[in-house]
Amino acid sequence: MTSRRALITGGAALLAAHLAGCTESAAKPGGASIDTASASPSSASAGSGATTSASEPLRFVVGSDGHFGEAKAPGNVYPKFVEAVNRLHEADPLDFVVVNGDIAQGGIEPQHTVRKTLDELAVPYYVVPGNHDGLSPEQWQDVWGSQQEQVIDFGDRSIVLANTSNAVGDYLCADVAWLAEALASAEDQRDVLVFMHITCKDWTTYGVDCPDVRKLLSRVSNLRAVFNGHDHDEDGRKTSAGVDYFFDGHLGGHWGTDYTGFRVGTLDGNQLATRMVQLDGVLRPEIRISW
Predict the structure, then answer these.
(1) Which of 34-38, 98-102, 241-245 has the lowest mean pLDDT?
(2) What count of Cα atoms within 13 Å lies in the side-chain half-sphere of residue 286?
(3) What is the torsional sign of CA 20, 63, 191, 44?
(4) Which has the closest alpha carbon to 62: 88, 19, 100?
(5) Fewer beta carbons within 10 Å, N or C terminal of the chain?
């Protein structure tokens, strides 16, 4: 059973036919699509539980930068996101979704609006603050019912959600003390995935140089990948000190990659398979890493 742990300092996979035999080099950009027709999901609110075991793949979605409420943005992308994710879940069950920052802007009400839509996901979901969300820790708790930093367990796997901003939108490094404790609490887990909105290296336009964070992450033997949003024009993988960092483009907003979409991942055995899925259903090339 999934568990959520608040630290003391805490301050789906795609259709099997599309995944079989694909590799990063063999995949064809724009070469396949999924049906994102309307599903009839059951409601799953933020922080709901899921069950998985070590012998089962852990399947997940991460999407970021929906920017609901931004004047220049095309509008509310979350109904389409929920529809697409629920369709994937119906085809091959997912274990969780992470919405990795810049969820909405303009205060508390847009956040409540997005939560009502995300509550229609048929899979548990978790949220990470971004620099445009603009909520205090207390407001975040009120809207989302969770702390801004979390560790969630899925059997012998864990996900760590780290905060990289504040209510005024500063670009920050993750709190090293909190992150160290979070990772230490999961040191006996088989696999760990980290999610944070802003990347901890200034290798992108809007990244932040956080050498202490990178050093800490590089020493975690069960860390499999770090997932970042924030840089809308980044949808690939970068590697630093043996750690793989994945970027998930953007769900909304007015700039970035020439498509909007989200990332799907499958953690299975000693391998992580992941790719971007466009909101119009087109599948992007797959990347696989192993250890």
Answers:
(1) 34-38
(2) 21
(3) negative
(4) 100
(5) N
Does the pLDDT value for residue 34 go beyond 60? no
Task: Compute the distance between CA of residue 193 and CA of residue 198 in angstroms, rounded to an integer.
Answer: 15
Q: What DSSP string describes 173-217?
A: ---HHHHHHHHHHTTTSSEEEEEESS-SSTTSTT----HHHHHHH
Least confident of 24-38, 140-154, 179-193, 264-278: 24-38
| Contact (Cβ atoms closer than 8 angstroms) between residue 5 and residue 152 | yes
Whether the Cβ atoms of residue 94 and residue 130 lie closer than 8 Å to each other: no
Q: Is 244 left (phi over 0), alpha (psi -120 to 50) or beta?
A: beta
CA dist 88 and 276 (Å) reads: 13
Give the bridge partners for 193, in sequence order.
Answer: 159, 225
Give Cβ neighbours of residue 20 (< 8 Å, ≥ 6 apart): none
Q: What is the DSSP string of 116-150?
A: HHHTT-SS-EEEE--TTT---HHHHHHHHSS-SSE
Q: What is the pLDDT of residue 74?
A: 85
Q: Read off the amino acid at residue 215.
A: K
For 1, 28, 247, the CA distances from 25, given in Å and listed in that order, are 36, 8, 18
Distance between CA atoms of residues 182 and 179, nearest Å:
5
- In whole angstroms, give the CA distance from residue 264 to residue 275: 6
Tokens of residue 45, six digits: 């609110």
Helix, strand or coil for residue 286? Answer: strand
Token pair of 206, please?
Answer: 């809007």
Beta pairing partners, 247: 228
CA nearest neighbour of 213 among 240, 186, 187, 247: 240
SS3 call for 45? coil
Contact 238, 248 (CB under 8 A): no
Q: For residue 3, what pLDDT is reported?
A: 59
